[in-house]
């Protein structure tokens, strides 16, 4: 008996805390604060592990960045293919153990009510740290967000929280990790709102902000440094400058879409290649090693290279070369199986695009010349939005990094232009684009999981009345008197769906009793499949103007019937429930 006491005490404690969180927002804020502190600590720890690998493998000083090196000893670049080999073998072994694809924070909040696997998340973080640590051109931000979201999801699942609270905590955890990485609490908060939760509401404001502030403070105490990018030139010296920065936003939107499509195309090419999946990271590592011999700036995420390039007066040819090589390195890293994301790569590439854009304005006599540093920072925000999403996230990153409101305002203009163009012409961020390529239909982190039960198969009635297509109207009238049913499904000789007959129509002419019911069939070419979503169902009703449609299986056998009234009512009920969760009313 004494052995069961701790378990009982733990259960009672969790039950007590669950009730407090459900009844008071203050308790949810307290839990979010603790999650934020944990996410901040994990972000610093992951950064140190990855940087420690780089120090060991590339013999750089502990206070230096790999991508800021002017030269790397050729034999040390062999860390890339050897690291890729280790990564490939580890991934092969893991997929044997857990073959299903891992879920990231955006997918978890959109499709799974905030549920993430701790084991999968830990392995993703390990893959990312190894990839970054051996010098692959990927950032650690995906690992930061994954770890923070996984902590939040674990706590939420242990407390058995409501879906809305789970989604808020997952967003808070991911945002807190980003806040810790950059020393920027507002950036982390809006990362949570725009990218992970998909909405900003009064209900999720306090928990998210509390988590990001806690993460920033913890990271600072652990030695994490804020991300500072200083400029002394006013960003906007005339209203015409805003037009140029808007044009820079257009350029960054096009570049972001091109980069995402390039990654997808490279993925397909590599997948069709004869290279075994296990050895692809090693082959990609060889390509990256060759590029690193040209310039080490393509290595790792690019933090050091970004700072070097902002302070160095690089020529236009060198900027273009670095832009092409960094983009190519990022594409190779991701398509050949290194783990990570394009978060910081997009920031680095954005600064290069901004500097190239500023250099090109010099060649147009009637254009005002832009300051290269300011243009780089505006490009940083605009390309970040094009690839990652979140115009306010990137604008606050620029603001918190520079402390300059004029630069942030220019970045916001370019970011909004880039965001609008990418949504209109492409419709995805990098994370949702890769999910789309995998077969998912989500375009953002907005909660669409509530629509998953609303399929034709789950909403239909299974007691569909049927009659053979060859039966006469007289036989129909004997079997289905007026008032017994409104519609009857017609079946052909093989028992497959052949249309629907309205009961009232069968009684319209008393003298046509010898006529076959098939002559009065409606919607013979239209039926629903059980897996069709509520959107497809409502589209079918709108197209046919039918009140009821049959639901058939793959062999066209009738398995049920669904009315438009019932589908509309169920959709309205779930939509209202989602609205109440979003506004904190439930």
Secondary structure layout:
Blueprint: H1 5-23, H2 25-58, H3 79-97, H4 105-111, H5 118-133, H6 141-158, H7 163-182, H8 185-197, H9 202-221, H10 239-272, H11 280-294, H12 303-311, H13 316-335, H14 343-361, H15 372-388, H16 391-402, H17 405-425, H18 430-437, H19 456-459, E1 466-468, H20 473-479, E2 487-491, E3 497-502, H21 503-506, H22 534-544, E4 548-552, E5 558-563, H23 564-582
Parallel strand pairs: 1-2
Antiparallel strand pairs: 2-3, 4-5
Helix pairs in contact: 1-2, 2-5, 2-6, 2-7, 2-9, 3-5, 3-11, 5-6, 6-7, 7-8, 7-9, 8-9, 8-16, 10-13, 10-14, 10-15, 10-17, 11-13, 12-14, 13-14, 14-15, 15-16, 15-17, 16-17, 22-23
Protein model, in words:
The protein has 586 residues and is mainly α. It has three domains: 2-221, Clc chloride channel (Orthogonal Bundle), CATH 1.10.3080; 239-446, Clc chloride channel (Orthogonal Bundle); 450-577, Roll (CBS-domain), CATH 3.10.580. The strands form two sheets. Strands 1-2-3 form a three-stranded mixed beta sheet. Strands 4-5 form a two-stranded antiparallel sheet. The longest helix is centred in the first third of the chain and has 34 residues, at 25-58. The chain starts with a helix and ends with a helix. It contains 23 helices and five strands.
């Amino acid at each position: 008996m004494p052995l069961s006491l701790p378990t009982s005490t733990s259960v009672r404690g969790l039950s007590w805390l669950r009730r407090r969180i459900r009844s008071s927002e203050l308790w949810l804020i307290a839990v979010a604060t603790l999650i934020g502190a944990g996410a901040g600590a994990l972000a610093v720890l992951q950064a140190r592990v990855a940087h420690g690998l780089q120090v060991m493998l590339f013999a750089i000083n502990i206070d230096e960045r790999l991508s800021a090196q002017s030269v790397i000893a050729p034999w040390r670049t062999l860390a890339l293919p050897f690291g890729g080999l280790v990564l490939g073998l580890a991934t092969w072994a893991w997929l044997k153990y857990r073959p299903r694809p891992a879920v990231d924070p955006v997918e978890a909040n959109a499709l799974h009510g905030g549920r993430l696997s701790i084991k999968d998340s830990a392995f993703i973080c390990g893959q990312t740290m190894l990839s970054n640590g051996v010098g692959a051109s990927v950032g650690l931000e995906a690992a930061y967000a994954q770890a923070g979201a996984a902590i939040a999801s674990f706590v939420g699942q242990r407390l058995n929280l409501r879906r809305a609270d789970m989604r808020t905590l997952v967003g808070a955890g991911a945002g807190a990790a980003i806040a810790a990485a950059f020393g920027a609490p507002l950036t982390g908060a809006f990362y949570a709102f725009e990218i992970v939760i998909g909405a900003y509401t009064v209900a999720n404001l306090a928990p998210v902000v509390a988590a990001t502030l806690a993460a920033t403070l913890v990271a600072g105490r652990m030695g994490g440094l804020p991300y500072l990018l200083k400029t002394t030139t006013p960003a906007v010296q005339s209203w015409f400058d805003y037009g140029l920065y808007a044009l820079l936003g257009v350029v960054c939107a096009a570049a972001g879409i091109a980069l995402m499509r390039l990654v997808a195309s490279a993925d397909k090419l590599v997948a069709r290649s004869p290279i075994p999946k296990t050895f692809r990271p090693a082959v990609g590592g060889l390509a990256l090693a060759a590029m690193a011999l040209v310039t080490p700036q393509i290595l790792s995420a690019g933090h050091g290279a970004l700072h070097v390039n902002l302070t160095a007066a690089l020529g236009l040819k060198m900027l273009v070369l670095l832009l092409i090589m960094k983009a190519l390195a990022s594409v190779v890293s991701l398509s050949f199986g290194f783990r990570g994301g394009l978060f910081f790569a997009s920031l680095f590439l954005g600064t290069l695009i901004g500097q190239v854009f500023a250099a090109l304005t010099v060649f147009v006599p009637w254009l005002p010349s832009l300051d290269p540093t300011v243009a780089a920072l505006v490009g940083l925000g605009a390309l970040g939005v094009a690839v990652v999403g979140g115009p306010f996230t990137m604008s606050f990153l620029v603001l918190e990094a520079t402390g300059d409101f004029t630069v942030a305002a220019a970045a916001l203009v370019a970011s909004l232009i880039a965001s609008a163009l990418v949504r209109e012409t492409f419709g995805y961020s990098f994370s949702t684009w890769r999910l789309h390529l995998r077969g998912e239909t989500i375009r953002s982190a907005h909660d669409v999981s509530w629509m998953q039960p609303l399929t034709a198969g789950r909403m239909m009635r299974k007691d569909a009345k049927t009659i053979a297509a060859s039966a006469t109207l007289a036989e129909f009238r004997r079997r289905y008197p007026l008032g017994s049913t409104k519609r009857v499904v017609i079946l052909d000789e093989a028992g497959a769906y052949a249309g629907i007959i309205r009961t009232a129509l069968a009684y319209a002419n008393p003298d046509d009793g010898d006529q076959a019911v098939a002559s009065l069939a409606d919607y013979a070419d239209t039926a629903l499949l059980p897996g069709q979503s509520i959107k497809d169902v409502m589209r079918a009703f709108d197209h046919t103007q039918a009140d009821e449609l049959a639901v058939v299986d793959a062999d066209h056998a009738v398995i049920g019937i669904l009315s438009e009234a019932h589908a509309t009512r169920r959709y309205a009920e779930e939509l209202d429930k989602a609205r109440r969760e979003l506004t904190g009313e439930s």
